[in-house]
Amino acid sequence: VDNLNEILRVVEKPARYTGGEYNEPQLQISGFNFCMCFPDLYEVGMSNLGIRIVMDAINRNNNMTADRCFTPWIDFGDKLKENKIPLYSLGLKKPLKEFDMLGFSLQYEMCYTNILYMLELAEIPLIKTQRDNSYPLIACGGPCAVNPEPLADFVDIFFIGDGEENVTKTAELFIKYKDNREEFLKQASKVEGVYVPKFMEVIYNEDKTINHFEGVTKVKKALVNDLDKAIFPENMMVANTEAVHDRVVVEVMRGCFRSCRFCQAGFIYRPVRKRKVETISKQSCDLLCGSGFDEISLNSLSTGDYPQLKDLIKTLKKDIPKDVKIALPSLRVDSFDSDFAEEARKSSLTFAPEAGSQRLRNVINKDITEDEVLKGVKAAFESGYFSVKLYFMLGLPTETEEDLAGIKKLAESIQRVYRNIPKRPKALRISISCSTFIPKPFTPFQWERQATKDEVEQKQKFLRDSLRIKNISFSWSRYDVSSLEAAFARGDRRLGKVLLAAYKNGCIFDGWDEKFNAEGWNKAFESENVDKNFYLREIKEDEILPWDFIDIYVDKKFLLKENKLSHSEEVSGNCKNQCKGCGIQKEFKCDFN
Ligand code: SF4
Fold first, then answer.
1. For 186-242, how does the pLDDT look when each residue is reduced to its tens digit (9 = 90+)?
2. Considering only CA atoms, which of 276, 321, 241 is closest in space to residue 13?
3. Does residue 590's CB lie within 6 angstroms of at least one atom of ligand 1?
4. In whole angstroms, how far apart are CA 67 and each of 32, 57, 124, 164?
């Protein structure tokens, strides 16, 4: 494009739009041309491991190609529109509309309008029924795809569950039925983990609840059984400009055995699967040597629970280059051990008690006691730490003022522990961060209501007032954003028109504080005559849920039982101590050793 260079000269961070990174795969047009689209900025997407795995899975095949594209920031997006340049991929520099399939990664609900923004910049009609066969198929995958329905108007095909295998199986079918899209979609819908929304109809009751589904009755999530054999990129691209995480990332484990009742990831990624120490070490060495990064992050939902963690760190220290730092980003306070102090320091010391009182921690099945928190921070302080970040949730089911007061008490106890440490390098800093509870699909809390704006703002005020303590900082999340996340997490396909209206009202980059446009969203619900509170209300046990046709192998009955236990403040413990028969055991074996 003639004037692209001139445009790049005037936009912020042009390196986001040029491609040509170190280790960029050399691509050619093939039998299946896929573009991985990330509905957020280059810096965020280049740090995402999931999209690298899917691209690598496709590019391993001679007759398949996977390119990539990230959401352009507004300055570049405006210039593209002004100059009538359609949004293009970074590798082949090919307009997105010329690909066979665009695959969007759904990491959080607040990125949904960016999908529409990217489609518009690509000159592709937003609504699926307005696209003919000359346009690419639009696909989505990633964690939010477990409830695909709010995007059903725009998306042709969803990948539910682990993406490594079902994307390439679908690509093979695409090549086979290239001239017959209808047949392709029919065949693809038979692949495990693939959902084609046009084959399903939703029938509603008069009170707006769902009566039944027609066409599709069950879509099982795709599941990779053996992580040691799963595809893992041997090389990684090095971003052109500073990425959110400039480091090598290796996934040590998928899933988590803790069973916290609010945590969607803990249920949708079951069963726990882990890589062997040798596999992780080999992957780490390959990626570090091939990229030149000087830091490696050992990722999972709870890395402290990796059973061979000490052995792994010992092996890595022996195998990887000496100056490489090892980061353990998701360490639980009770797995903090002075043996890991050095590694944990590379990230920050962050603990998530989630609730201020033991009673409420029992309700959410967070199997952590105040003593364990204090023991963990003591070990950290003894290793030289003087700053702690604590994460909590506000608006949890059954929460009272006493539970909130527990947050302050816990912070004060941590201060006391610090005062008793003989060697204190500096004054202790505690930052307390409170997000708002979101009842998520496939959790025991999926039926719970979300607290109202007034309730949450009162709780935030209570904490602001009580936490005016020297060296303690307090931050909280914006209710308007949390309520939209809840609505879209638990929403149905009738939210599609709200999404479209919000986009037309100028809502994009909704996950970025400075761009969040509450008015645009409020107007969209109003103009489309959709009541947001319908999606935030308490749901009756016998109601059909918009995501009930998705099967993650965890029984609804089990989730309901856990919900009842939560209301009687009973913990059910974690899976490692005792299997609770969630449903997974019918088809897979859980192994925590
Ligand atoms: S099958 Fe048992 S051990 Fe495995 S995830 Fe379910 S409850 Fe936990």
1. 999 999 999 999 999 999 999 999 999 999 879 999 999 999 999 988 888 999 988
2. 241
3. yes
4. 11, 12, 18, 16
Judged on CB neighbours under 10 Å (0-12, 13-18, 19+), 396 is: buried
274 CA → ligand 1 middle, Å: 15
Query: Which residue's alpha carbon is at the smallest distance from atom 4 of ligand 1?
Result: 590
Q: Is the CB of 580 under 6 A from ligand 1?
A: yes
Q: How far does the centroid of ligand 1 lie from the alpha carbon of residue 586, in Å?
A: 10
How many angstroms separate the CA atoms of 576 and 22, rounded?
42
Q: How far is the centre of ligand 1, averaged over its atoms, from the C-alpha of 589 (Å)?
A: 8
CA pair distance 399, 566, nearest whole angstrom? 12
How far is Cα 172 from Cα 591, in angstroms, rounded to an integer? 33
* pLDDT tens-place string over residues 482-536: 999 999 999 999 999 999 999 999 999 999 999 999 999 999 999 999 999 999 9
What is the Cα–Cα distance from 311 to 331, expressed in whole angstroms?
Answer: 16
Span from the CA of 302 to the centroid of ligand 1 (angstroms): 16
Q: Are strands 201-204 and 210-214 parallel, antiparallel or unpaired?
A: antiparallel
- Closest to 541 measured CA to CA, from 554, 560, 558, 555: 560
Regarding the beta carbon of 575 and ligand 1, being less than 6 Å apart is answered yes
Q: Whose CA is nearest to atom 5 of ligand 1?
A: 271
Separation of CA 194 and ligand 1 centre (Å) = 24
Closest by Cα among 357, 305, 354, 362 to 332: 305
Question: Does residue 251 contact residue 299 with C-beta atoms inside 8 Å?
Answer: yes
